[in-house]
Design a protein that fits this description.
- With 214 residues, the chain is of the alpha/beta class.
- It has nine helices and eight strands.
- The chain has helices at 20-29, 44-58, 71-77, 91-98, 111-116, 144-154, 170-175, 185-188, 193-207, and strands at residues 5-9, 32-37, 65-68, 81-84, 103-108, 124-128, 158-162, 180-183.
- The chain has an eight-stranded parallel barrel, surrounded by six helices.
- Strand 3, helix 3 (71-77) and strand 4 (81-84) form a beta-alpha-beta unit.
- Helix 1 runs parallel beside helix 9 (193-207) and helix 2 packs across helix 3.
- It is globular.
- It starts with a strand and ends in a 7-residue tail after the last helix.
Protein backbone atom coordinates (compact mmCIF):
# COMPACT_ATOMS: atom_id res chain seq x y z
CA UNK A 1 0.00 0.00 0.00
CA UNK A 2 1.44 3.35 -1.08
CA UNK A 3 0.99 5.83 1.77
CA UNK A 4 3.21 8.47 0.22
CA UNK A 5 2.16 11.16 -2.21
CA UNK A 6 -0.80 13.55 -2.21
CA UNK A 7 -3.65 12.86 0.23
CA UNK A 8 -6.92 14.66 -0.52
CA UNK A 9 -9.01 15.55 2.53
CA UNK A 10 -12.50 16.62 1.50
CA UNK A 11 -14.25 19.75 2.75
CA UNK A 12 -17.66 20.67 1.36
CA UNK A 13 -17.30 24.29 2.46
CA UNK A 14 -14.24 24.66 0.21
CA UNK A 15 -15.70 23.30 -3.03
CA UNK A 16 -16.36 26.76 -4.51
CA UNK A 17 -19.39 25.58 -6.48
CA UNK A 18 -17.86 22.35 -7.76
CA UNK A 19 -19.32 18.93 -7.01
CA UNK A 20 -17.57 16.70 -4.50
CA UNK A 21 -17.35 13.94 -7.11
CA UNK A 22 -15.63 16.22 -9.62
CA UNK A 23 -13.08 17.33 -7.04
CA UNK A 24 -12.32 13.77 -5.94
CA UNK A 25 -12.02 12.42 -9.47
CA UNK A 26 -9.95 15.40 -10.54
CA UNK A 27 -7.56 14.87 -7.64
CA UNK A 28 -7.25 11.17 -8.39
CA UNK A 29 -6.56 11.85 -12.07
CA UNK A 30 -3.94 14.35 -10.96
CA UNK A 31 -2.16 11.69 -8.94
CA UNK A 32 -3.71 11.66 -5.46
CA UNK A 33 -2.91 8.37 -3.73
CA UNK A 34 -5.37 8.60 -0.81
CA UNK A 35 -8.77 10.24 -0.25
CA UNK A 36 -10.17 11.02 3.17
CA UNK A 37 -13.90 11.72 3.44
CA UNK A 38 -14.35 14.27 6.19
CA UNK A 39 -17.93 15.12 7.20
CA UNK A 40 -18.43 17.07 10.41
CA UNK A 41 -22.05 18.20 10.19
CA UNK A 42 -24.06 15.43 8.56
CA UNK A 43 -26.17 12.54 9.80
CA UNK A 44 -24.64 9.12 10.25
CA UNK A 45 -26.82 7.71 7.48
CA UNK A 46 -25.76 10.41 5.03
CA UNK A 47 -22.11 9.86 5.94
CA UNK A 48 -22.41 6.11 5.31
CA UNK A 49 -24.25 6.60 2.02
CA UNK A 50 -21.66 9.11 0.81
CA UNK A 51 -18.81 6.85 1.85
CA UNK A 52 -20.26 3.90 -0.04
CA UNK A 53 -20.84 6.01 -3.12
CA UNK A 54 -17.36 7.52 -3.11
CA UNK A 55 -15.74 4.16 -2.53
CA UNK A 56 -17.35 2.98 -5.77
CA UNK A 57 -15.87 6.02 -7.53
CA UNK A 58 -12.40 5.18 -6.25
CA UNK A 59 -12.32 1.41 -6.84
CA UNK A 60 -11.47 1.67 -10.58
CA UNK A 61 -8.54 3.93 -9.68
CA UNK A 62 -7.25 1.68 -6.86
CA UNK A 63 -7.20 4.66 -4.48
CA UNK A 64 -8.05 3.88 -0.83
CA UNK A 65 -10.93 5.64 0.93
CA UNK A 66 -10.20 6.78 4.48
CA UNK A 67 -12.97 7.92 6.83
CA UNK A 68 -12.33 10.79 9.21
CA UNK A 69 -13.00 10.03 12.90
CA UNK A 70 -15.85 7.56 12.50
CA UNK A 71 -14.88 3.91 12.86
CA UNK A 72 -18.55 2.92 12.67
CA UNK A 73 -18.92 4.63 9.30
CA UNK A 74 -15.73 3.01 8.03
CA UNK A 75 -17.09 -0.41 9.00
CA UNK A 76 -20.54 0.19 7.54
CA UNK A 77 -19.17 1.50 4.25
CA UNK A 78 -16.39 -1.09 4.03
CA UNK A 79 -13.89 1.74 3.64
CA UNK A 80 -10.18 1.04 3.45
CA UNK A 81 -9.36 2.73 6.71
CA UNK A 82 -9.92 5.49 9.23
CA UNK A 83 -8.13 8.57 10.47
CA UNK A 84 -8.56 9.19 14.19
CA UNK A 85 -7.63 12.01 16.52
CA UNK A 86 -6.32 11.92 20.06
CA UNK A 87 -9.85 12.19 21.49
CA UNK A 88 -11.45 9.64 19.16
CA UNK A 89 -11.66 5.88 19.57
CA UNK A 90 -8.29 4.49 20.76
CA UNK A 91 -6.26 3.13 17.88
CA UNK A 92 -6.00 -0.30 19.55
CA UNK A 93 -9.79 -0.72 19.55
CA UNK A 94 -10.04 0.61 16.00
CA UNK A 95 -7.49 -1.98 14.92
CA UNK A 96 -9.46 -4.80 16.56
CA UNK A 97 -12.65 -3.68 14.88
CA UNK A 98 -11.25 -2.94 11.44
CA UNK A 99 -8.72 -5.74 11.22
CA UNK A 100 -5.05 -6.00 10.30
CA UNK A 101 -5.42 -4.85 6.69
CA UNK A 102 -7.16 -1.54 7.46
CA UNK A 103 -5.24 1.70 7.10
CA UNK A 104 -5.24 3.53 10.41
CA UNK A 105 -3.87 7.04 10.77
CA UNK A 106 -3.48 8.95 14.02
CA UNK A 107 -3.25 12.71 14.46
CA UNK A 108 -0.36 13.97 16.57
CA UNK A 109 -0.24 17.54 17.81
CA UNK A 110 2.79 17.47 20.12
CA UNK A 111 6.21 15.80 20.30
CA UNK A 112 4.99 13.83 23.33
CA UNK A 113 2.22 12.30 21.20
CA UNK A 114 4.72 11.36 18.50
CA UNK A 115 6.87 9.62 21.09
CA UNK A 116 3.87 7.83 22.60
CA UNK A 117 2.87 6.51 19.18
CA UNK A 118 6.20 4.80 18.51
CA UNK A 119 4.93 1.38 19.56
CA UNK A 120 1.46 1.83 18.06
CA UNK A 121 0.17 -0.52 15.37
CA UNK A 122 -0.87 2.28 13.06
CA UNK A 123 0.03 3.00 9.45
CA UNK A 124 0.81 6.70 9.57
CA UNK A 125 0.92 9.75 11.79
CA UNK A 126 -0.97 12.85 10.73
CA UNK A 127 1.29 15.70 11.87
CA UNK A 128 -1.26 18.41 12.57
CA UNK A 129 -1.25 21.32 12.11
CA UNK A 130 1.80 22.47 10.12
CA UNK A 131 0.63 26.00 9.22
CA UNK A 132 -2.46 28.05 10.18
CA UNK A 133 -5.48 27.16 8.07
CA UNK A 134 -9.13 28.25 7.99
CA UNK A 135 -10.28 24.63 7.70
CA UNK A 136 -9.04 23.84 11.21
CA UNK A 137 -9.98 26.58 13.65
CA UNK A 138 -9.48 24.77 16.97
CA UNK A 139 -5.71 24.37 16.67
CA UNK A 140 -3.61 25.52 19.61
CA UNK A 141 -0.22 24.36 18.38
CA UNK A 142 1.42 24.72 14.97
CA UNK A 143 4.34 22.46 14.15
CA UNK A 144 5.95 24.63 11.51
CA UNK A 145 8.90 23.37 9.49
CA UNK A 146 11.27 22.94 12.44
CA UNK A 147 8.63 21.07 14.40
CA UNK A 148 8.04 18.74 11.46
CA UNK A 149 11.78 18.03 11.30
CA UNK A 150 11.67 17.18 14.99
CA UNK A 151 8.74 14.81 14.45
CA UNK A 152 10.63 13.12 11.60
CA UNK A 153 13.67 12.57 13.80
CA UNK A 154 11.50 11.01 16.51
CA UNK A 155 9.21 8.73 14.53
CA UNK A 156 9.46 5.41 12.70
CA UNK A 157 6.07 5.94 11.05
CA UNK A 158 5.04 7.36 7.72
CA UNK A 159 4.42 11.08 8.33
CA UNK A 160 1.45 12.79 6.70
CA UNK A 161 1.73 16.56 7.02
CA UNK A 162 -1.52 18.53 7.12
CA UNK A 163 -2.56 22.11 7.64
CA UNK A 164 -2.12 25.10 5.35
CA UNK A 165 -0.10 23.21 2.73
CA UNK A 166 -0.03 24.89 -0.67
CA UNK A 167 2.12 24.84 -3.79
CA UNK A 168 4.17 27.72 -2.34
CA UNK A 169 5.26 25.86 0.82
CA UNK A 170 4.99 22.19 -0.19
CA UNK A 171 8.68 21.86 -1.07
CA UNK A 172 9.79 22.93 2.39
CA UNK A 173 7.34 20.49 3.99
CA UNK A 174 8.69 17.59 1.93
CA UNK A 175 12.29 18.57 2.64
CA UNK A 176 11.48 18.62 6.37
CA UNK A 177 10.52 14.97 6.29
CA UNK A 178 6.89 14.57 5.23
CA UNK A 179 6.23 11.38 3.29
CA UNK A 180 2.78 12.52 2.27
CA UNK A 181 1.05 15.89 1.87
CA UNK A 182 -2.56 16.04 3.10
CA UNK A 183 -4.31 18.87 1.31
CA UNK A 184 -7.74 20.40 1.73
CA UNK A 185 -8.30 23.89 0.32
CA UNK A 186 -5.43 23.88 -2.18
CA UNK A 187 -7.28 21.13 -4.06
CA UNK A 188 -10.95 21.53 -3.05
CA UNK A 189 -10.98 25.27 -3.78
CA UNK A 190 -8.84 25.10 -6.91
CA UNK A 191 -10.42 26.00 -10.24
CA UNK A 192 -8.85 22.83 -11.65
CA UNK A 193 -8.40 20.17 -8.93
CA UNK A 194 -6.62 17.81 -11.30
CA UNK A 195 -4.03 20.40 -12.27
CA UNK A 196 -3.59 21.53 -8.65
CA UNK A 197 -2.99 17.94 -7.52
CA UNK A 198 -0.58 17.22 -10.34
CA UNK A 199 1.40 20.36 -9.49
CA UNK A 200 1.66 19.37 -5.82
CA UNK A 201 2.67 15.85 -6.77
CA UNK A 202 5.42 17.15 -9.01
CA UNK A 203 6.74 19.33 -6.18
CA UNK A 204 6.75 16.33 -3.86
CA UNK A 205 8.56 14.12 -6.38
CA UNK A 206 11.12 16.83 -7.07
CA UNK A 207 12.01 17.53 -3.46
CA UNK A 208 11.67 14.20 -1.67
CA UNK A 209 14.75 12.16 -0.74
CA UNK A 210 15.86 9.67 -3.36
CA UNK A 211 14.59 6.15 -2.94
CA UNK A 212 11.15 6.97 -1.54
CA UNK A 213 8.11 5.60 -3.44
CA UNK A 214 6.11 7.91 -5.68
Amino acid sequence: MNLSGIYLVTDRASLAGKSLDDVILGAVRGGATLVQLREKNVSTRFFIDEARRIKKLLIPHAVPLIINDRVDVALAAEADGVHIGQDDMPWSIARKLLGPKAIIGLSVETPAQVKAAQTSDIDYLGVSTIFPTPTKTDTRHFWGIEGLRQARSMSRHVLVAIGGITASNAASVVQAGADCLAVVSAICSAADPQQATAHLRQILLTHRPKGQPS
